[in-house]
Amino acid sequence: MTGKSTLAALCLLAGLAHAADPAAVHARNLAANCTSCHAPDAPAPNAIPRLAGRPAAAILQKLQEFRAGTAPATVMHQIVRGYSDEQLALIAADFASRSAAAD
């Protein structure tokens, strides 16, 4: 690739990134904190579930149960305290929108 075509490609990518839905980007950024444990390439089967493609309502319910202390947890009950209800809903929606086939 020549210098000019590389620059043009970078400008195009920057424009596409800027045009992305800010809510989707925000949700993806919030969910990024969860992917070290809940990523498609996380070891399985184990106690840490893969979340991609699961229904958002089910993910959100579990997150709310962790926060309420009604679901058993090692660290999740502490982690979810750092998020608002809106942020938890965005995280759940982001994981639900991901392809389970990537798992």
Can you tag this structure with a few keywords?
single chain; 103 residues; mainly alpha; 6 helices; 60% helix; transport; iron; Cyt_c-like_dom_sf; Cytochrome C; heme
Topology:
Blueprint: H1 3-19, H2 22-32, H3 35-38, H4 56-68, H5 76-79, H6 85-97
Describe it for me?
- By secondary structure, the chain is mostly helical.
- It has helices spanning 3-19, 22-32, 35-38, 56-68, 76-79, 85-97.
- The radius of gyration is 17 Å and the shape is globular.
Radius of gyration: 17 Å
Quote the average pLDDT: 80
Output the helix-strand order: HHHHHH
How many beta-strand segments?
0
Uncertain runs are none
Please bin the fraction of helical residues.
55-70%
Strand coverage percent: under 5%
How many angstroms does the end-to-end distance come to?
34 Å
Shape: globular
Main β-sheet, in a few words?
none
TL;DR of this structure?
With 103 residues, the chain is mostly helical. It is built from 6 helices and no strands. It is globular and about 55 Å long.
